[in-house]
Structure formats: C-alpha cells, structure tokens
Write a structure and sequence with these properties.
heterodimer, A: alpha+beta, mini-chromosome maintenance (MCM) complex, domain 2, 7 strands, globular, B: mainly alpha, Arp2/3 complex 21 kDa subunit ARPC3
C-alpha cells in the first residue's frame, strides 16, 4: 500500500507547497482588483476607507463588497458558491474567484509584489 | 475476462463515477481545505478501472463523467473536470500498470490528485488570470491529504476484489 517512494513524494510536495506559501509572503494589501472575464473591471484602494464606507458592486450575477478590511463575495447566482465560501480577502496575492461567472477579486499591495512572484 | 464482461464493468464503473462525484458535491466543505477542493472520490473509480481494465476504459469513464458535468454544471466545469480527470488518469494508469512499480497506491493516489488539481488550476489561469496561482500551495497540500485517502481506499478495493475473482 505505502512504499518508501510514496513518503518521499509526500514530503517533497509538502515542502514545495510550504516554500510557495512563504515565498508569496503575508503582507496586508492596499488595493482590490475586481476582474471580469480576465479584464480589469475596477480597482479600489480600501486602506483609506472609513468605517461607514462600503462599496457594493454587482457584476455578472455576483455581489462584491469592498470595505476598509478587504473584500469578499457577498452573493452569487452560481451553483457551487465557492466564491462566497472563500470569505474575506485582505492580504497581498489573495484571491477569491467565481469561475462560473468569470468574476475574480484579488488584492495587491503598493509595490506590486505579486507580479514578481508569478513572474 | 470476456469482452462483454469488460463492457458491462466499464459501464457500471462509469455510472459509479458519476454517482460518487454527485454525492461528493453534497458533502460540506471541510474547514482546512481550500475553497472548491474535493476529495476526488471518482479518482478511485478511474484508478480501479485502469488497474483492472485498461487506461482506455478509464478515460472512457472520464469522458462520461465530464459529459454529465457539462449537462449539470456548464462548460467551465466541463473543461475542468475533463482536463483534470484525463491528466490524473493518464499519470495514475502509467504508474499502476508499470511492471516494476516502486510506488504504492498511496503515492499514486497523491500524484493523481496533484495532477488533477494542477491541471484544473491551469484551466482557471486560462479563464481568468495568473492570480489564481495563489491557490497552488493550498491545493498541493490538499492533494496530499485527499490522495492518501483515495490511495488507501484503492488498495482495500483492489485487495478485496482480487481475492473474490480467484
């Protein structure tokens, strides 16, 4: 059932994923990018927002909320609700995505660290 | 095995793959898993088919399952299901059927799950943008967990059915 090579594979994969995770960093982001069909729909700087300032976007059947703590999918007409279950995102590189509706939201920092990683 | 028996077994396994993947969709998402990740119960069926039948029979199961996904969940899900299923089936079939395999079923299950997840992520990159690569470390870690699970079940299934057929 389990052989030495299986354990080697598992250890290698876990180390690879840990390395990727730490390489991508854990910084708080400043801007949320809302994209539809791979194209930029809008870009919001959320760090400067006040307590009461909440932006709501309706995009191809999804409802996206942006406030001072980040962004999240509030509702979606899709079947899986993966996007809604992704929860709030606020760190650089984090992404929530609704594949059936082709809508994604992602966080970027000031220095565009993310582009350097995906290269 | 007779040709008719093979055809019947293949048809039954196809139905089983569709059924388990439908049931899997009803399970609640586990807390530690990245959103959208699933156990991949239908991978057990395709691995079993490529071991007891041939890789072509296993790919036929993938096609049947993807068409079911196309009818119920749309074109995006179809491409993800088909490419993920085909990639993992080809890799697991090659490892399972090699004569001097140095890999156990757990390792093969993990590699199959990783191939499944990576090719699905590739489809996601094409549909949206490279931002979804953020998921990659979580998906690889998840495939270790789910692959171990499917590998253990495959081992149990193979050992029980090989005893019966003798």
């Amino acid at each position: 059932m389990i052989k030495v090579r299986d354990i080697i594979i598992i250890i290698c994969l876990l180390m690879f994923s840990a390395a990727l995770y730490f390489a991508s960093g854990n910084k708080e982001g400043s801007t949320v990018l809302i994209e539809y069909d791979g194209n930029l729909f809008t870009e919001v700087n959320f760090t400067g927002l006040g307590d009461e300032e909440i932006f709501t976007y309706y995009l191809n059947g999804t409802t996206i909320i942006v406030d001072k703590n980040g962004a999240y999918f509030k509702e979606s007409v899709c079947a899986g609700k993966v996007c809604v279950n992704s929860g709030r995102i606020s760190k650089v590189g984090q992404i929530a995505i609704c594949l059936p509706q082709r809508v994604s939201i992602r966080i970027e920092g000031n220095g565009r660290e993310f582009d350097g990683i995906t290269g | 095995m007779k040709k008719l028996n093979k055809l019947t077994l293949n048809a039954m396994l196809s139905a089983l793959a569709v059924a388990v993947s439908a049931v899997e969709g009803l399970l609640p998402a586990a807390a530690f898993m990245p959103p959208g990740a699933k156990i991949g119960l239908s991978n057990i069926v395709t691995m079993y088919a490529s071991k007891t039948l041939t890789v072509y029979n296993a790919l036929a199961i993938v096609v049947v399952k993807s068409v079911f996904v196309l009818a119920t969940r749309g074109a995006t899900a179809f491409f993800m299901s088909f490419l993920g299923g085909a990639a993992s089936t080809i890799i697991t079939a090659a490892l399972l059927n090699s004569k001097k395999s140095k890999y156990g079923t757990v390792g093969i299950g993990v590699l199959g799950a990783a191939a499944h997840n990576c090719s699905q992520l590739l489809v996601a990159v094409i549909i949206t943008n490279e931002g979804v690569l953020y998921y990659l470390p979580f998906l690889i870690a998840a495939s270790v967990v789910t692959g171990t699970f499917t590998g253990v079940i495959l081992h149990l299934t193979l050992s029980i059915t090989s005893r019966r057929s003798e």
